Structures are given as C-alpha cells and as structure tokens.
C-alpha cells in the first residue's frame, strides 16, 4: 500500500515538473510583456518587478508609421479568406472523391495524397516565378489562390475520410426523391460535415495567422505586412531592438488564435465522439 502511494506521488510530481517545463515559455512570454525593456534580457525570472503597460502602448501605436491595427487587419483578412477558401474547395473536392465515380478517381486521389510528401520549399522558386510573371507579387493572390483550388491535400483527405464514414443510404434516399448531387451535398453532406469543417477551420486559421514565409516572399509594401512580418520590424541588428514591444505584440497576436480555438472547441469534441461511435 505504501509502495503504491509512493509511486502515485512520484508520478504526480514528475507530471507536475513536466507541466512546469512545458508552460514556462508561455508564462515567460506573457509576463515579460509587462516588464521594462531593461529587465527582459538577461534574466530567467518570468515575473516583472514593477508591471508596466508601456510595451502594449508602443505595440499598439505601430511601427514605421503603420499602426498595429493595419497589420492586424491584414492578418485577419488573410486568415478569414483562407478559412473560407479551404473549407469550400476542400469540401467540394472531398465530396467528389468520396461519392462520385469518374475515370481515374483512385489515381487522382493517390496523386493528391502524394503531394503531401513533397516538401513545400521545393515549389517556392517555380511558384514565385509564375506569380512574378503574372504580376501578382505584392498582392494577396499568391497566398490565397492555392487554397481556393484545393491544393492543401491534408484538408481534402480529412474531409474525404469523414464523408466516407457517412452511410450511403442517405444519398440513395435523396436520389429516390429526385435530389441531384448539388442538393445532396448542400442539404445532407455539408450539415453532417460540421466537425470536419470546424477542425479544418481551426488549422487553416492558425496556419495562415502564423505564416511568415509566404508573406515574406510575396508582400513587399510595409502597409501590406501581416503580424508575423511586423514582429520582425522590432529587431534591428544595427541599433537597439525593442524586445518589449515585440513581445507585447506577440501576446496580442495570440488572442485571435485562442478565441478561434475556444469557439470551435465543442465541434472538435463532437467530431471525436462521433468518429468513436461509428463502427
């Protein structure tokens, strides 16, 4: 009995230690946003001696003559459009792969899955050349057109597997009543696809919100920068870097991601529960 209790105490202490290690960077980031600039670098203590809001005032005032809300609006626009384009294009493509029969369907599906094995960096140069020749550099089009054309195989595959788990009797009953593919997709498949749509929306929003390389390649005007690019502006290799404002802006940039997760969290749980009940 004592051995079992000692083992339980040891396990919980170990789990607590791991939890502290995992949470420390997040706690340090949030707490450091309230520190004075001189206290941020050179100390491992996450908590400020005297909390201050100066870093947030500097971050909200913007940089290089551009306000924080301009960067925030650019990131939000790209993230929302990414979610919409990915959900719409992936859902339609997934329905075609899961429900329609057409020549070469399995081959095209395998090729689509195969694109997940190709490193994204391999395509950077040819894609950039294409967009440059088309005069689309310094616009949001290169960051959205691939999502509109369902080139993100992960989301298509996710929805295909979800649709395949739905009973085909629903489609057949609708066809008997005279419904076509558009009506079946819009009235039957799409409502049942909500958990997969919620999961795709969360991932698409977070990936677009945190994307640094794409905007770095295609956006040249500072007033079109997203928040990840704006954070880089606070680092100056020749003079003094404003780490306080940078960390404060990073904390502010976390808020939409957390809100997105909490809003769609119940749909994620619903999706897991639904998948677990299907056999």
Q: Can you walk through the features of this model?
A:
This protein has 279 residues and is mainly α. Helix 11 runs antiparallel to helix 14. The two termini are 41 Å apart.
List key phrases describing it:
279 residues, mainly alpha, globular, disordered C terminus
Q: What's the structural blueprint in terms of helices and strands?
A:
Elements lengths: L1 H31 L4 H4 L13 H8 L6 H32 L5 H10 L9 H10 L7 H8 L4 H12 L4 H8 L4 H12 L1 H17 L2 H6 L8 H6 L10 H35 L2
Helix pairs in contact: 3-14, 4-7, 4-8, 4-11, 11-14
Mind telling me the C-alpha Rg?
Answer: 24 Å
Shape: globular
* Relative strand content: under 5%
**Mind describing the biggest β-sheet?**
none
Give, in order, the helices and strands. HHHHHHHHHHHHHH
Strand runs, count: 0
Weakly predicted, low-confidence segments: 275-279
**How many DSSP helices?**
14
What percentage of residues falls in helices of 4 or more residues? over 70%
What is the first-to-last residue Cα distance? 41 Å
Q: What is the arithmetic mean of pLDDT?
A: 85
Structural class, by secondary structure, is: mainly alpha
């Amino acid at each position: 009995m004592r051995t079992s209790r000692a083992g339980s105490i040891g396990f919980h202490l170990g789990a607590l230690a791991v939890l502290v290690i995992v949470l420390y960077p997040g706690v340090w980031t949030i707490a450091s946003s309230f520190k004075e600039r001189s206290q941020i670098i050179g100390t491992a203590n996450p908590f400020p001696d005297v909390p201050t809001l100066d870093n947030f005032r500097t971050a909200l005032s913007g940089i290089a003559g551009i306000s924080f809300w301009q960067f925030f609006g650019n990131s939000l626009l790209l993230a929302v459009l990414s979610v919409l384009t990915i959900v719409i294009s992936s859902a339609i493509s997934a329905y075609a792969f899961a429900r329609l029969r057409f020549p070469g369907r399995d081959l095209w599906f395998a090729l689509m899955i195969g694109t997940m094995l190709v490193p994204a960096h391999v395509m950077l140069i040819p894609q950039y050349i294409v967009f440059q020749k088309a005069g689309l550099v310094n616009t949001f089009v290169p960051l959205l057109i691939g999502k509109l054309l369902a080139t993100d195989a992960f989301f298509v595959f996710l929805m295909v597997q979800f649709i395949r788990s739905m009973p085909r009797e629903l489609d057949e009953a609708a066809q008997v009543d005279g419904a076509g593919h558009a009506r079946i997709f819009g009235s039957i498949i799409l409502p049942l696809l909500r958990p997969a749509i919620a999961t795709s929306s969360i991932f698409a929003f977070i990936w677009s919100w945190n994307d640094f390389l794409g905007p770095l390649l295609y956006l040249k005007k500072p007033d079109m920068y997203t928040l990840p690019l704006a954070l880089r502006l606070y680092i100056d290799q020749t003079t003094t870097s404003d780490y306080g404002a940078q960390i404060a802006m990073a904390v502010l940039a976390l808020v939409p991601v957390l809100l997105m997760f909490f809003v769609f969290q119940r749909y994620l749980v619903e999706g897991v529960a639904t998948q677990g009940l299907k056999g």
